[in-house]
Amino acid sequence: MSITSDSEPKARHSVGQSMKRKEDPRLIQGRGRFLDDIVLPNMLHLAIVHSPYAHARIVKIDKSAALAVPGVKAVLTGEDLTAAGLAWIPTFHGYDKQMVLAVGKVLYQYQEVAGVVATSREIANDAAELVVVEYEQLDPIVDPFVARRDGNILRDDRENKTNHIYHWEVGKRAEADAALASSEVKVKQRIYFQRCHPAPLEPCGAIADMNGASGRLTLYLTSQAPHAHRTVVSLVTGIPEDKIHVISPDIGGGFGNKVPVYAGYVVSAVGSVVLGVPVKWVETRTENLTTTGFARDYHMDVEIGASKAGKLTALKVTTVADHGAFDAAADPTKYPAGMFGVVTGSYDFPVAFTELDAYFTNKAPGGIAYRCSFRVTEASYAIERGMDLLAGELKMDPAELRSLNFLKKEQFPYQSPLGFEYDSGDYETTLRKALDRIGYTDLRREQAERRQRGELMGIGLSTFTEVVGAGPGRLFDIMGIKMFDSAEIRIHPTGSGIVRTGTRHQGQGHETTWAQIVAEELGLDPQNLRVEEGDTDTAPYGLGTYASRSTPVAGAALVKAAQRIRERARKVAAHLLEAAEDDIDWIDYKFQVKGVPGKTIGMKEIAFAAYTNPGPGNEPGLEATYYYDPPNMTFPHGAYVAVVDVDRATGATKVRRFVAIDDCGTVINPMIVEGQIHGGLTEGFAIAFMQEITFDENGNHLNPNFTDYLLPTSLETPAWETGNTVTPSPHHPIGAKGVGESPNVGSPAAFVNAVMDALAPLGIKHIDMPLTREKVWRAIRDSGA
Amino acid sequence: MFPARFDYLRASSTDEAVAALAQHGGEARILAGGQSLIPAMRFRLARPSVLIDINAIDDLRYLRETGGSLLIGAGTRDAALETSELVTSGYRMIADVSVLVADPVVRQSGTVVGSICHSDPAGDWGVAALAGRAQIVVRGPAGTRTLSADDFLVDSFTTALAENEMALEVQFPRPSEHTSGAFAKLERKVGDFATASAAVQLTLDTSGAIAEAGVAIGAVGAKALRVSEAEQLLRGAKPSKDVIRAAADAARKEADPGSDTRGSAEFKKEMAGVLVARALVSALERLGVGGMA
Ligand SMILES: Cc1cc2nc3c(=O)[nH]c(=O)nc-3n(C[C@H](O)[C@H](O)[C@H](O)COP(=O)(O)OP(=O)(O)OC[C@H]3O[C@@H](n4cnc5c(N)ncnc54)[C@H](O)[C@@H]3O)c2cc1C
User: Which of B150, B173, B196 is the last residue of a domain?
Assistant: First the structure.
């Protein structure tokens, strides 16, 4: 390590270093162990029969032809599950329940209707084609605005005969309305954040293994939240929680898609209980895209008021949410619309109000947090688009408008009008860095020249604020379980160790960053700190990985647990250094006798002594656990700038440059953070330009595979230019905030703002995502230019 | 998704493949790169009971110029064209297609002949075959015959191949010194089939007028379409913005697309025109005639 001068921050042992990812040699050499790699003796395979209709009554199911296929062991239907009390299960946030296999009627196309268990996956699939289901078609509703009229009640199982699920609001309605009415300048726009799908490369799957002798159910699940799933399984089935073992093996991407409980999980478990052997279920791509948790689908009316000089006066956002057939959004109990209240963004609104109404439609359920803290992406998109619309109305530079209205560094901690306490931020510095990096002034000059020649070039900004790290137990729970997280550290005699948390990474790099955090606190070698997650028999209880909560919550628990180790080690150090405990300092990653720089001892030696010579009265061994209840959320922010050229004749857009400056507080591993930013920006790019789950008027899903649900390749993905500023979180033990989701949250608005900026000379104000060639072409054509 | 059950046969010679076709008739399908056939089988849109794999037939893997034509064997992958000096220097329109068809991974397996045999209306090679006036050599129990691309491409996923015939080769006549072409494609992302595409090939006479023209459009009809009206307009004309515009309008007229997730019929029709115009502009540029954009 280099010698540092006083003016530079002191080089740290481990945190802040771009250590290569410890998990990569295993993963990139094909030596990971994903769900479908696991093969158990006598294992059977489950295939699911899906509904071809979006809304239909089930008249009859004939299993006989399927059961006659050699190798078929069972065919399960909703009726069979009813007998087991498992036809319906509660949804995560407790306002609704959902069907496992359809009972009585189907409510969306591809809904699970029956399960076929057979000796091979091929036989199960062939036999699934032979399950004959007779349907009587019903009128489907594919539009939440039609659902709202309650002309056709979709959920006759519910007590309230309405398609309305809930109303939610926060802020001051009357004040916001009054402020808007008296504002000198106003903009109002219906903005639709389209239904999209996280589409992890590995689809969902399960292996259920009920051991009839021990009475223990082992569930291998593609789960982002293995402990939560264990508890849910216990509550739903009545199996005592000690008899349930959930193992979440390597996961090939989750993005929120692997938080809910899916039909295949339950049916494979029932299959294993009934047949006494393990049953595996692995989704097809089509099943993943059509039945598992979608994201977004918010129709937002955004209204912003301002003075002529551009000072914000009020914000009002009214949303209609399409939740599909069941209300299966996995939001914390007290937050049915997630963290949508962060919609005031990075700006100093004197007054704000937002309300939301959610409706059932004949579409797959979901509304999961796709790479964002619950509904933050929708909120961020609404406000960042709104700010550009306002800038257009005011004929003001969008960067200037943002600067004028940013919350100032000195305003933190800041109480937002919609109920959050922002922990820290320095929006102006981040924006300046982004503008300098991209050469904003020169680009505006170039744009002016191109406009003279009739060329369409646009520059788009997004200066977003997120709220992540759910969350403080007084506010956040899922099914009553507080959203704390946990860490357990065991240091072995030779100074290596094992680190476990209640989170479950799916590509985020925990095996590396967790080791770095612990190494930093203990002065040990991160290479010899093994990180293990995902096994409920060994990991401490936690709520899992999503909503950028791992570093803010489990990361903090790790620091606290490591500090507990250090306190125990201090006693051993006192014994070894023959000094009083109070006279032992922790300096430069070593224990030292106060004022005697020569008398030191490192953690590695202490570890050995902890097992061989702990000292009289000292507890042997070196382990600690910590359950961390965060005092607040963390509020990462960023400034993104996109430069786009638009082809007038075809509507094709090309992202020429993209600068992303992120501020996630203290950075643990810059390389991993950069990787997260690259991934999230690529997803944001896809959402902005090519992804949408659409339905025809009969509720047929039009994007059931990767031919029609598009994932960008490296060839069209822009080259990302990344950078950062550091505004530590004042309440996190090492100042870290979450980062995995910022790029997905912040980037869609930057892309869309850039395209709208390009089209501004034609008088075009807004086009909903995805900005396909045809939509852009149509807008240009209709502008008459 | 899993294909329905099928038998698999690896042919080691063309004789063997043709014999197997004769034996199994309509139940059998030739397996070339598998980039169209296997996905169709996985979705169970195709359920052949026998696959005759021709990938082990070394004799079919060639790319050479003989008798004034580029000969592409049925075993030749798209990727071979992309890196061929012969193609990139002498066959500009084909070179364009070779880097725009599918994606780099698919091009490692997919074959030109297989694509033409598939006759996907949105496929790129059929469009190129029409504009480049390609011929397809096919073989059945009675021997070989040669068909023009126009005769070979019959309809959506339908060719003139009889059940007991396979294609051996596609032949593209070598463009003369005064001939060049271009291919233009609008796609939603790399690796997507065309929303619309256009291929053109032009020959100039000594006076600089257009002596011969091939114009075809893709993804805007039941199959790849030749735009005869555009060819007639171009033939004999001096290159001009007006004649390009007229040819593009002829393409718009000829286009008869359906609406789907790639776009509305209206959009695709319009794009057929835009792409024909763009392909003509770049073909002319390649012939040293600028200022047409
Ligand atoms: C992700 C992806 C993207 C793609 N994008 C594009 C694109 O942008 N543009 C495009 O044009 N194509 C695209 N394709 C299709 C690809 O180019 C295919 O490779 C091509 O269309 C078929 O060639 P193949 O060798 O794979 O044929 P196969 O799939 O093996 O066969 C296709 C059909 O032709 C028949 N056949 C093949 N060879 C012969 C023969 N010698 N004689 C008789 N019949 C034969 C087969 O029986 C089958 O019916 C894409 C494919 C994929 C998977």
Answer: B173
Q: Quick check: is A275 in a domain?
A: yes
Tell if the CB–CB gap between B263 and A122 is shorter than 8 Å: no
Q: Provide the residue range defining the domain that includes A606.
A: 24-32+485-628
The radius of gyration of chain B's CA atoms, rounded to the nearest angstrom, is 19
> Do A560 and A643 fall within a single domain?
no
Which amino acid, one-letter code, is at A257?
N
The number of domains in chain A is 3
Of B53, B70, B91, the domain-final residue? B53
CA B219 to the chain's CA centroid: 12
Residues of chain A predicted below pLDDT 70 = 1-11
Q: From its phi and psi, is residue A16 left (phi > 0), alpha (psi between -120 and 50) or beta? A: left
Cβ < 6 A, ligand 1 pocket = B 29-37, 39, 74, 101-103, 106, 109-111, 113-115, 117-118, 120, 123-125, 161, 166-167, 191, 193
Residue A224's CB is within 10 A of a number of other CB atoms, namely 29
In-domain check, residue B14: yes
Is there a contact between A703 and B1 if contact means CB atoms under 8 Å apart?
no
Is residue B21 in a domain? yes
- On the question of pLDDT at B1 being above 80, the answer is no
In a domain, B155, yes or no: yes
Q: What is the pLDDT of residue A10?
A: 52
pLDDT at res. A3: 36
Cα(A653) to ligand 1 centroid in Å equals 29
Of A122, A715, A773, the CB nearest to B2: A122
With CA atoms as reference, report the closest residue to B36 among B118, B152, B93: B118
Residues in contact with A770: Cβ distance below 8 Å, sequence separation at least 6, in sequence order: A194, A687, A688, A689, A690, A691, A692
Range of the domain at B227: 179-284
* A364 & A447 share domain: yes
CATH number, domain of A369, equals 3.30.365.10
Number of domains in chain B: 3
Residues A405 and A417 in one domain: yes
What are the distances in angstroms from CA A330 to CA A163, A706, B225? Answer: 19, 25, 50
Q: Is residue A150 a part of any domain in this protein?
A: no
What pLDDT does A784 receive?
87
Q: How confident is the model at residue B33 (pLDDT cuts 50, 70, 90)?
A: very high
Residues of B in contact with A652 (CB under 8 A): 186
Please give the Cα distance from A494 to A500 (Å, whole number).
18
Report if residue A427 sits inside a domain: yes
Residue A69 sits at the chain B interface (C-beta within 8 Å): no
Question: Annotated active-site positions of A, please?
Answer: 224, 371-372, 741
Query: Which parts of A268-415 are beta strand (E)?
Result: 279-282, 294-306, 312-322, 352-359, 366-368, 414-415
Which residue among B2, B189, B267 places its CB closest to the CB of A716? Answer: B189
- Rounded to the nearest 10 degrees, how much is the dihedral formed by the CA atoms of A434, A438, A439, A440? -70
Q: What is the four-CA torsion angle of A684, A688, A690, A694, rounded to 10 degrees?
A: 110
ipTM: 0.96
Q: What pLDDT does A11 receive?
A: 63
pLDDT at B117 over 60: yes
Q: Is A774 on the interface with B (CB under 8 A)?
A: yes
**Partner-chain contact B5 A286, CB within 8 Å:** no
* Tokens describing residue B85: 């000096």
A496 plus A362 within the same structural domain: no
Give A610-647 pLDDT, tens digit per residue. Answer: 999 999 999 999 999 999 999 999 999 999 999 999 99
At A5 the pLDDT is 36
Residues in chain A: 785
Query: Residue B46 belongs to a domain with what CATH number?
Result: 3.30.43.10
Residue A92, pLDDT score: 81
Give the distance from residue A453's alpha carbon to the nearest chain B alpha carbon, in angstroms: 15
Residue A87: give its domain's CATH number: 3.90.1170.50
Report angle CA B229, B233, B239 to the nearest 5 degrees. 140
